[in-house]
Design goal:
By secondary structure, this protein is of the alpha+beta class. Helix content is 32%, strand content 24%. Bound molecules: flavin-adenine dinucleotide.
């Protein structure tokens, strides 16, 4: 049976424990969500469970870039860059043009910097050639031209800037739209449901993994899910789950922490900055959600993944590194609205984490569970398809032989031109009663045509058209929609991941209390 969007948690738990699934995916980050979406499209009966909120861990702590990865050119990985570009352009053109937006990037070249203008000029030219010049030709511009695009760019010692094109997104929103796509395709999903143990065939510790024991983190209910095959897509927790399968499993990955800051922006920026810090690392300064996103750090991490956060030392490092290219007046601590950190999953092995390859790590355990971690947000559909293919070819063919072909370009829900949606939202009502253009734009670029469903809530109850906080564009209808149609169950789900309140520093105690009342 298909579980409708908006079904309550008890109903979903009942459905999860009632059936035997072809595939149970543990972990509702973007990797698990992608495999779930692909498996449902291939006609499989698939369930996905997530301990916290969908994309609540690494997948909402990224640099929000949909990119080819300029730095991979340095290691000569031309094929990888071309693949990433293809996927980037597919997302921006066919899959999610309402959620993924083009952005031009400048690489400022300073006297004494780690790379010269000739090398960077050749680099951005090759980078643009690898995407068939779809975003224009990479080139070198003068300091004056660079400063007209980014007024806060530091001018002392600036020799030139290299220019290239990529895309950006709001990662949490793209993730929740992908969860919705998976459910539309027939998957059953539940967040705030933690796997606390694995089911084994014959109840035997050395048997095959045949499902999982779960605990609902919101009300403590315990339940189980049976499946022919179980996929561990728990990102930084991947080895924790592997040890549930086999207490002696050797570590397969290591972790590197990356922190970011969000700051209020004083001037419009027409481009982002990619500032080389040393031979390998860059510091990003990216216009995002009317703010500025700065980061990131790259440092080995050995603690509990649940405890990862941006520390004072991270904040100092990010501001210091941004200061290579951004003027001090744009880097004042009082302008910080949010700081966050996530964990990169890197293949285990020796060497500096900043030089390690960003690959997907796939292992199969003694109980037959496949574990997958790592990779990029940008290529999530590609990784999802690849993992599904791997699962379908496992010895003994546990998924059977008749998986349907996946259509190459199934769009995310709400597909539309965001400009068209914003215009419709704005012109829908009579002059004098029109939606604020900033609110309309915010809805259009985070929901696509689903913004019309959100707007319909306002028609029924005009108070839902009010802003949640006067300084931001998010409105109460979004919180109601998040609760009823986007699996938001906690205040953080709403303020951090369904809306932009936390990012903008607007999740005040009063706002949190009012959202808590709404959820209750
Ligand atoms: C700092 C940083 C910046 C990045 N920037 C970019 C970028 O700009 N562009 C790009 O393309 N890529 C970027 N990436 C990479 C990208 O963010 C990751 O590859 C991607 O988010 C990984 O997703 P995931 O689903 O594997 O992991 P996660 O998002 O961490 O998901 C794993 C999930 O498993 C859940 N889980 C754990 N244990 C259990 C359990 N027992 N039961 C149920 N669920 C459980 C967790 O709660 C978690 O939500 C960045 C990564 C980092 C760290």
């Amino acid at each position: 049976m298909n579980i409708a969007i908006g079904a309550d948690r008890a109903e979903i738990r009942h459905e999860l424990s009632r059936a035997t699934y072809d595939l149970l995916v543990i972990g509702g980050g973007i990797l698990g969500t992608s495999v779930t979406w692909m498996a449902a499209q291939a006609g499989l009966r698939v369930a996905m469970v997530e301990a916290g909120d969908f994309a609540g861990a690494t997948s909402s702590a990224s640099s929000k870039l949909v990119h080819g990865g300029l730095r991979y050119l340095q290691t000569g990985n031309v094929k990888l860059v071309a693949e990433n570009h293809r996927e980037r352009r597919a997302l921006a053109a066919d899959i999610a043009p309402h959620l993924v937006k083009p952005l031009s990037f400048l690489v400022p070249i300073y006297k004494g910097g780690p790379h010269g203008a000739a090398k960077l000029g050749a680099g951005v030219f090759l980078y643009s050639a690898l995407s068939v010049f779809g975003d224009g030709m990479g080139k070198v511009i003068t300091p004056h031209q660079a400063m007209t695009r980014v007024p806060a760019l530091r001018s002392e010692g600036l020799r030139a800037a290299a220019v290239y094109g990529d895309h950006q997104m709001n990662d949490s929103r793209v993730a929740v739209m992908t969860v919705r796509a998976a459910v539309d395709a027939g998957a059953v999903v539940l967040n705030h449901a933690e796997v606390v143990g694995l089911r084994k065939s014959g109840g035997n510790a050395t048997g095959n993994v045949t499902g999982a024991e779960l605990r609902d983190r919101l009300d403590g209910t315990e339940f189980g899910v049976d499946a022919r095959l179980v996929l561990n897509a728990t990102g930084p927790w991947v080895d924790h789950l592997r040890r549930m399968e086999d207490p002696h499993a050797a570590p397969s990955i290591r972790l590197s922490k990356g922190a970011h800051l969000v700051m209020r922006r004083h001037d419009p920026w027409k481009a982002a900055l990619t500032t080389p810090i040393d031979k390998y690392r860059v510091s990003f300064a990216i216009p995002w959600e009317d703010h500025l996103l700065l980061g990131t750090t790259d440092e080995a991490y050995e603690g509990d993944p649940a405890d990862v956060r941006a520390t004072d030392a991270d904040i100092a490092q990010i501001l210091d590194e941004a200061g290579h290219a951004v003027r001090d007046c744009q880097l004042r601590r009082e302008d910080i609205t949010y700081a966050f950190a996530g964990l990169r999953v890197l293949p285990g092995g020796p060497g500096q984490v900043s030089a390690a390859k960003r690959e997907t790590v796939v292992t199969r355990g003694a109980g037959g569970m496949l574990s997958v971690a790592g990779g990029k947000w940008t290529t999530y559909r590609h990784i999802g398809r690849h993992v599904l293919e791997t699962l379908s070819r496992l010895p003994g063919r546990p998924l059977g032989d008749d998986l349907a072909d996946i259509l190459p370009a199934v769009p995310l829900p709400g597909l539309a031109s965001p400009d068209a949606v914003a215009m419709r939202l704005w012109t829908e009502r009579e002059p004098g009663a029109r939606m604020d253009p900033l609110v309309a734009r915010n809805l259009a670029t985070h929901y696509g045509t689903i913004a019309f469903d959100v707007a319909r809530l306002i028609r029924d109850d005009p108070s839902l058209g009010e802003r949640i906080h006067p300084d931001g564009p998010d409105i109460w209808a979004q919180a109601v929609y998040a609760r009823d149609h986007e699996w938001a169950a906690t205040v953080d789900d709403v303020v951090r991941r369904r809306t932009t309140l936390t990012v903008r520093g607007l999740d005040t105690p009063d706002v949190r209390t009012r959202i808590e009342q709404l959820l209750a």
